[in-house]
Amino acid sequence: MKKTVTNKSGMPFLDHLEELRWRLIKSIIGIVIGSMIIFLFIDQIFEIMLRPVKILENPPKLQVLKVHGMFMLKWFISLAGGFILALPVLTYQLWKFIAPGLLKNERRYAFPVIFFSFIAFLTGVLFAYFVIIPFSMEFFTSVGYVDVENNFSINYYFSYLIWIILAAGLVFELPVLVVILSSIGLVTPPFMRHYQRHAIVVILILSAFITPPDPISLLMMSIPLIILYEISIWLSKLFVKKV
Questions:
Q1: Which of 20, 29, 85, 204 could make an S-S bridge to 34, C-beta 3.0–4.6 Å?
Q2: pLDDT at residue 171, rounded to an integer
């Protein structure tokens, strides 16, 4: 007699894939709705994102180098902003997907995890906007040459800004990721303690990749990440799956 493959929650494997498909569809819908909301306020957001350039001692000139440059740029900003707005929805869908494999008392942490994920991401975004980006822009504009003007493509400027903002936001999600992985038994405090030195090396490499090549920016990004890693170990103790 043919057996149906099931997971720990008792759900057949194909039904589990169907569940995943619908969670992804709902996540995409959340991003689309968030992007539409951002697009309604695109000019105000555009002005906010120009602020790091305007406050520089020697602000560069931003130029549109393609006919459709501004059109594509505004849609790009809308999509990135939509992802940020939809983060609670994305976290909720992820939690609902893994919830059947959790114990009943573990499922009550859904709202705190969703709320904290948004706060953590927003903290990373604000940290990037007010700390990393001003320092990096000041660094890059100060290494010019007297006879060469700093004329930046506005598309490259916004791509750089959004990359830093999203990268910092995602990195600040480390505690949330650890909570989820601990709740399903993939991460434990002893595991994180054992690879703590390796994690610090990875953090330094990741910080060097995100920030400009100067030691101050590297430390500014690395120290919060190391603190987040220590917080993640503590959270793992609370949420680790009992076997």
A1: 85
A2: 84
With contact defined as beta carbons under 8 Å apart, do 169 and 121 qualify?
yes
Task: Give the Cα-Cα-Cα angle 171, 137, 56 (nearest 5 degrees).
Answer: 135
Residue 44 is predicted with a pLDDT of 92
154-171 helix and 42-54 helix, angle to the nearest 10 degrees: 90
Which of 206-227 are b and which e, b meaning 16 or more Cβ less than 10 Å from the residue's Cβ?
Answer: ebeebbbeeeebbebbbebbee
Q: Which amino acid, one-letter code, is at 107? A: R
User: 187: alpha, beta or left, given left = phi > 0 and alpha = psi -120 to 50?
Assistant: beta
Domain range summary for the chain, segments of one domain joined by +: 13-239
Please, are residues 114 and 95 in contact by the beta-carbon 8 Å criterion?
yes
Please give the radius of gyration of the chain, using alpha carbons only, rounded to the nearest integer. Answer: 21
Measured CA to CA, the distance from residue 144 to residue 68 in angstroms comes to 29
Element (H, E) at 63: strand 61-63
- Residue 212 has a pLDDT of 64
Mean pLDDT by 10 residues, the chain (243 residues): 48 71 90 94 90 84 84 90 88 76 61 79 89 82 72 86 85 82 79 86 81 70 85 81 52
